[in-house]
Design a protein that fits this description.
Layout lengths: L8 H18 L15 E5 L2 E4 L4 E4 L2 H4 L8 H13 L10 H13 L6 E5 L2 H16 L3 E5 L8 H6 L15 E4 L14 H19 L4 E6 L15 H12 L2 E5 L24 E4 L11 E5 L1 H6 L15 H16 L2 H23 L3 E7 L2 E9 L4 E2 L8 H13 L1 E2 L1 E3 L2 E4 L7 H19 L6
Parallel strand pairs: 3-14, 5-6, 5-7, 7-8, 8-9
Antiparallel strand pairs: 1-2, 2-3, 4-10, 9-10, 11-12, 12-13, 12-16, 15-16
């Protein structure tokens, strides 16, 4: 058997064994206790599938880290990186290069409102870092508000902004970050029973937080328009518009973190487009901008904030800002997404296949407490008891039940994104109906294991 990269399964297995040996000897992995790790080796990838070191093909319902929006090894993007490497591999960011200029134009065409100035970074975390720096310099204030149940990156400011347990070992009281509760009706902090109540009470809570912290001390408010890693909680109608109004009232910069939700994942170019015309002051992006083929992120900047630095130098930069290989990949990615109607496909598959299919699973499996999502951006909240909503794994942890489900999926050929008690169904935007149904069928079988751990068993 020959894999998509031209290797035979025997060659791939030999290469994988050597790679694994060297990995365990020399590679220090992120977010992990090193001694217990047994990472999976990937030897090849194509479209919506990856192949592990044993030659097994897995349907990638994780999009790796929810970033391969156009799928693996898209030929037009691979060719664009190869052509750019032959023409100009790298150049310092102070110089103009055509790949960066064109990427900036294509991104600015798609960002909401007048966010048409683009500062390029190497990824999502440093995009958030620079957005916060811009906001602080623009306002002359320091504090930043962000919600619990969020993730904004692993660098110093970004991890302090994060509202999940990964923040705890790196948390500093002097970071200037204040957390608040965002809307999440399934586990409402506001005793709400309807989306309208959840919106009203969440906004009242945020308004009170701003008042107690002192509006004149707050530089920015950072939100994922649809939180990703934290649970894909689509905000109820009116919430983001209310946030925009509060920011306008108090001169607070509204930063939309679109690192995970942007570039087609929700069935629109950016998740904030679902909010009915809300435009942030700054918008961060990464991941789907070029599907991670070469590391790239950035900040889209409003005219008012960009003008702050017309005659005042912006004190920040990166050696690889707007790297030619990364931005050439972005140009090819955005062009392919447009020409092949990938964003439209994500919306269609979500509405016609994934959403209905996942809701059908919820009817059969008592372990599913809630189904949430849009486009190719979905989460299953797994619970022990639907009445009490007790999660199948604790907040910040895992459980044997969750491990059984994930292992069963992998054994059957399905790779999932998992966080605490949630299974995230986040395939590439290019996934077809047959592939989506293939994944749902595997998930259906694996969830019978989760059902055994419920009170209904």
């Amino acid at each position: 058997m020959t894999l998509p990269n031209g290797m035979t399964t025997e060659q791939a297995a030999e290469s994988a064994a050597r790679a694994y040996e060297l990995d365990r000897r020399h590679v220090f992995h992120s977010w992990s206790a090193q001694r217990r790790l047994t990472p999976m080796t990937i030897t090849a990838a194509q479209g919506c599938y990856v192949w592990d070191g044993d030659g097994n093909r897995l349907l990638d319902f994780s999009s790796q880290l929810v970033n391969t929006n156009i799928g693996h090894q898209h030929p037009k993007v691979v060719a664009a990186v190869q052509e750019q490497a032959a023409r100009l591999c790298t150049v310092a960011p102070q110089h103009v290069n055509d790949a960066r200029s064109e990427a900036a134009r294509l991104i600015a065409e798609r960002t909401p409102g007048e966010l048409d100035r683009i500062f390029f970074t190497n990824g999502g975390a440093d995009a958030v870092e620079h957005a916060v720096r811009m906001a602080r310099l623009h306002t002359g204030r320091y504090k930043v508000l962000t919600r619990y149940r969020s993730y904004h990156g692993g660098t110093e400011t970004a991890i302090n902004l994060t509202g999940d347990p990964r923040r705890w070992p790196n948390d500093h009281g002097n970071s200037g970050v204040v957390h608040f509760f965002g809307p999440f009706l399934y586990r409402s902090q506001f005793y709400a029973n309807t989306e309208t109540e959840e919106t009203e009470r969440a906004l009242a809570h945020l308004e009170q937080t701003i008042a107690f912290e002192g509006p004149s001390t707050i530089a920015a408010l950072v939100l994922e328009p649809i939180p990703g890693t934290a649970g894909i909680m689509v905000p109820p109608p009116g919430y983001l518009a209310g946030v925009r109004e509060l920011c306008d009232r108090h001169g607070i910069v509204f930063i939309a973190d679109e690192v995970m939700a942007g570039f087609g994942r929700t069935g629109k170019w950016f998740a904030i487009e679902h909010s009915g015309g809300v435009v942030p002051d700054l918008l961060t992006f990464a991941k789907g901008v070029n599907s991670g083929y070469v590391p790239l992120g950035g900040v889209a900047i409003s005219p008012a904030i960009a003008a702050t630095f017309d005659d005042r130098p912006y004190p920040g930069g990166l050696t690889y800002s707007g790297h030619p290989l990364a931005t050439a990949a972005a140009v090819a990615t955005i062009t392919a997404m447009r020409d092949e109607r990938m964003v439209e496909n994500a919306a269609d598959i979500g509405a016609r296949v994934l959403g209905p299919g996942l809701r059908e699973l919820a009817e059969r499996h008592p372990s599913i407490g809630e189904v949430r999502g849009t486009g190719v951006f979905w989460a299953l909240e797994l619970v022990r008891d639907r009445a009490t909503r007790e999660p199948l794994a604790p907040y910040g942890g895992t459980s044997p039940a969750m491990n059984e489900v994930v292992a069963a999926c992998r054994a059957a050929g399905l790779l999932l994104f998992v966080n605490f008690n949630r299974l995230h169904v986040v395939p590439p935007c290019v996934i077809g109906e047959a592939e989506a149904k293939e994944g749902l069928a595997i998930l259906d079988q694996a969830l019978t294991l989760a059902d055994r751990h419920t009170t209904a068993a």
